[in-house]
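Figure S4 source data
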Amino acid sequence: MVSAEATAVGFSLLLVPVLDRPFTGDLCVSPEPFEESALAQFR
């Protein structure tokens, strides 16, 4: 039981830096839809 919890915590700590930068890397999210819709309202 302790090893399962340690694995879950370790996996969560691994996901933090991976998901921290969604606009970089080979598989990335484009900021264009956000810039066209959400930011266009403030221009």
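Figure S5 source data
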Amino acid sequence: MWRKLAPVLLCMLLLTGCWDRLELNDRAILLGTGVDLLEDGRYMMTANIVVPLAAGSKGGNGGTPGFLTETAVGKDLTDAKQNMQKKLSRVAFSGHRRNIFIGESLARHGLSHLMDQYARSPDVRPRSNIYVVKGGTAQQAMSLFYKLETNPSIAVQKIQEKVGAPISRSLLDFFILINKDNCGVMPSLKLVDPEVEPVKKTDNDSPPQPTLEIEGIGIFNEELKLVGYMEMDDFWVRLWVTNRLKHRDQTESIGGKEDTVSIRLTHLKSKVTPEFNEDGVSFNILLKAKGEVIENNTALALADEQAVKDLEQQFEKILQSRAEQSIKKIQTGYGLDIFGLGDSIRMFHPYKWRRLEPNWENTFKKAEIKVRVDLNVRGTGLDLDSLVPERSREDSQ
């Protein structure tokens, strides 16, 4: 009996050891990393590392940063990370990394080396967010002290969420889009100064400081090189067309410059229908949304049902024109199908897609794209009547 159990017990003794353990207090937790390309062709890696004592006391919300910023230079990312480890008393651990920042110079040079390492390394989370820093470097973005959060890497992710954009998988989306449509996009951000230079009169004053701002998206070609940007005023159109826009507050002038109405758009959906002809293909895009009036600086009396319908029609025309202009910019400027219109053919007309795919870039450039907006304003707030003075009402009429 013991002879039979001896091999089993021996195996159990060998398998239950913890000789290779690494305690949490032996790890340097990286919440964000950034990569820049130097003039001599080397890569500079920047990391935001959690400072345990500061994080535990929530020091990042006060006057002391809750993170340490460290940099290192190398021939590639692996070499740079190894050189960074020489400066750290703990083992660099990127398992909790949320965001990756790319300097503009590296993005325009090309991300093929960077993406190769990210695709191979098991330490890289595919659902991480990746950003290109417009007009700046990753080191500048990651060195900024953002008072509302313990770490600037966390701040940009929350900002992106608040403006209605999807979060937590832009790296995975980039991989999918590059392999599927030979183009890619990633969110872009920039460092901005206060609109008006603040004057600090006492030490207790807290004037606006330079901060990070979501700018839109960077557009990459099949060579993984940055070819341009899509500004925030156009970026929301792409999110809407691809069914990824959560919400948006839209302000438009109805009549004069001061006669503005703001509507909060929710329940945003889209439907793309391809139509085939001898010249190729055309698309009909239906954009749907529900809205609520959150500000009315016009003479419109929203208690009147007809006035609400007129407002819906005016906003539908404006949104339709904005969407068509945004799509046309990408068609003529870059010829890259970042809206995923080819997916509507690939999924529902696979045989026709096989014929169109080899020359899809040229086909997309020439395709006629029509947009129709269906807006349903469901709410007008607590006050139905306009608060614009009676004289202003008569002038606007």
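The longest helix spans residues 305-333. The chain has two domains: 24-232, 247-397.
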